[in-house]
Amino acid sequence: MGLPWLDHPAWSVVERAEAALGEPLASLLIDAPATTLARTRDAQLAVLLTSLVVWEAAAPVIHEHHYVVAFAGHSLGQVTALIASGALPLEGGVRLAARRADLTQAAADARPGRMAALLGASLDQAEEACAAAPHACWLANDNAPGQVVIAGSPEGVDAAVARAKEIGVRRAKILGVGGAFHTPLMDSARAGLVAALAETPFDAPRSPVVSNHDAEAYSDADGWRERLADHVAVPVRWRRSMERLEGLGAEAFFEIGNGSMIAGVAKRTLPGLPVHGIASPADLEALAAAAAPIVADIGGGQAKGREAPAHIAVVDSP
Fold first, then answer.
1. Fewest beta carbons within 10 Å, which of 163, 202, 214, 317?
2. Mean of all residue pLDDT scores within the chain
3. Residue 313: is its pLDDT beyond 80?
4. Is the domain 3-109+187-316 a CATH 3.20.20.70 member?
């Protein structure tokens, strides 16, 4: 994911992160084998840093052409969104992400679990499936219509998947992750994060950040300590978060980082809003070009650059 950025000035983000953690990280973005990236901590740091490198390069272009109404990030991406918004300093955010990964992995080791995507399922169907394994399986992600993720103990997920098939869910796919994230099986990680967050500095964001757990937009600083601790053990309400972004006035999304997961779920939830992906330096050239039609659309044919900026939301991949 990082190779296209290796010679770009934005690569300095990786060097700052290495200094903050006191360990080499560049290989995670360049040549780490699949066995390394299967580990929760390494995978999450790779995703976080790739997104932050892209944001470092894209932010000046985005701010020149667009008005950012809000930031949001899916799961781990919420930390990225807080850094991008200015609510978290880069170094503090990287240290928090590493600690979060350590704690969630320890929780997964202590209470093993798994996650499964229920493709084509409604939210009601997902909740009915989980009811087949009370206190052992829960809703973990409500991503979009027809894309809901459940998680729990291995036995609990097996029972819920079996029930999902009985009630007509088209397909259940076990995800290749190392634990039952965003469920009560992460309660020990939540407790550990309270101490880590007490030492993490926060500022008010430049634009509101929409929280995964309740899909509300927040412009404060201190409240994120409680939200981020709770976040690891409660469902990601991403469908509602995207709807909140639209309600705040967003007329387009910019997906920062590798992949297109956000674009996929956005098209399911808000098909009328365009999503512009930025994953490589080549995408930066298209970024400025994308501003013209968006600005013209909201300016009635009379828009001139910053005089009538497009209202956009910046989102980060998980």
1. 214
2. 90
3. no
4. no
**Catalytic residue selected from 75, 85, 207, 211:** 75
Q: Are 184 and 144 within 8 A, CB to CB?
A: no
For residue 92, give both structure tokens. Answer: 């503090």
For residues 128 and 111, the answer to whether their CB atoms sit within 8 Å is: no
Residue 65: predicted pLDDT: 81
What is the number of residues in the chain? 318
User: 91: number of CA atoms within 13 Å, CB side?
Assistant: 10
280 is catalytic: no
Domain positions in the chain are 3-109+187-316, 114-174
Residue 122 among the catalytic residues: no
Q: 247 and 71 in contact (C-beta within 8 Å)?
A: no
Q: For residues 233 and 182, is the Cβ–Cβ distance under 8 A?
A: yes
Give the confidence band of 242 by pLDDT, cuts at 50, 70, 90.
very high
From the candidates 65, 66, 74, 182, which is the catalytic residue?
A: 182
pTM of the entire predicted model: 0.91
Q: Are 80 and 196 contacting, i.e. CB atoms less than 8 angstroms apart?
A: no
d(CA 224, CA 252): 26
Q: How confident is the model at residue 290 (pLDDT cuts 50, 70, 90)?
A: low
- The pLDDT value recorded for residue 100 is 96
Q: Above pLDDT 90, what percent of the chain?
A: 81
DSSP label at residue 200: -
